[in-house]
């Protein structure tokens, strides 16, 4: 456990360093965006978290080479695809339905490229994480978990700290366990925790880059840890939540549910309504 704590601390340090450098670089303005309050925030948190997570999985203790490779492919691929969407994506096309609708009109959006890319990198990472267990079926299920998790965490990145809180809560159990999947998630948890204060203070946000990377890291952890029934259950849950997001506002559901609302607002700046 001590080695995992050290691994998380190293990843956290890398994240802080990358964030500070991006904030003070000549190209800092390209990372500026407007948040839900209409205030300027930085998307530099995304690359910072992704860099820390990558260092974390690369130096994770006691992790088989195939799982380390799976984590690197999943996190690195998700971060790169998310960055493409953050820096070049159209802001007028939202959600799975919006991107598929644009594709039907002959328009290939960066969101569509990201979805296809997440699927491909997810399958590769899932197959490596399974290390041959369960054959093709398990590899495909694991790939769907990796890709679906990357997408789902991004869907929750609509309020300060929400996506990071979700990731940390979902990762705490595996990180405390003895599996190699738990070892590989410690670094990304450290990176995410290091940037959470900036997120809660509304000085920065994960963006697609960071949210996709954290979701992919969690997906690899599940792909390496769960058996086939567990993988199938996670795929079903991810699919249901993704479809629901096209019809229901997660923010509205959270605001109407007392416990979820308290957790969501924990550590955030006060809002203008209860």
Quick recap:
By secondary structure, the protein is an all-alpha fold.
Characterise the protein shown here:
The chain has 274 residues and is mainly alpha-helical. The protein has one domain (2-265). Helix content is 73%, strand content 2%. It has 12 helices and 2 strands, in the order H-E-E-H-H-H-H-H-H-H-H-H-H-H. The protein has helices spanning 2-24, 45-58, 65-88, 95-104, 110-130, 135-155, 162-176, 180-200, 207-225, 228-245, 250-256, 258-265; strands at residues 32-34, 40-42. It has a two-stranded antiparallel ribbon with strand order 1-2. A hairpin with a 5-residue loop joins strand 1 (32-34) and strand 2. Helix 1 (2-24) runs parallel beside helix 8 (180-200) and helix 3 (65-88) packs antiparallel against helix 9 (207-225). 49% of the residues are buried.
Please give a handful of descriptors for the protein shown.
mainly alpha, 12 helices, 274 residues
Average predicted confidence as pLDDT: 89
Count of distinct strands: 2
Look at the helices and sheets and give the structural class: mainly alpha
Residue stretches low in confidence (pLDDT < 50, at least 5 long) are none
The geometry reads as globular
Q: Biggest β-sheet, characterized?
A: 2 strands, antiparallel
- Rg on CA atoms, Å: 18 Å
The string of secondary-structure elements, in order, is HEEHHHHHHHHHHH
Strand order of the largest sheet: 1-2
Query: How many individual domains?
Result: 1
Beta-strand percent range:
under 5%
Distance between the termini: 40 Å
- By DSSP (H or I, 4+ residues per run), the number of helices equals 12
User: Percent of residues in helical segments?
Assistant: over 70%
